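Worked example

This section walks through a single chain of length 73. The input is the sequence exactly as stored; nothing has been trimmed or padded.
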Amino acid sequence: MNKNDLNERLDLLRSTDTITQKAAEVTEKTFDHLVSVIGKHDIVQGEMLFTHLSSAITRLERGENIEGPPQEV
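Given that input, the structure is written out below as tokens.
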């Protein structure tokens, strides 16, 4: 996933009100920070990470419950 891929995904999620604008902004900043830390502009298999991150931030903003991972994890 590169920055263009991320922006397309976030735009789609925002357009369907699946995520909030703030969640998209935080996710984009997180992507930028990760890119700067690892020194790569393409994050392999990053789609799931950034989709779930933006969804979790949205649920927090909306006051929805977020369950932690299973005990086994």
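What to look for: DSSP finds three helices and no strands in the chain.
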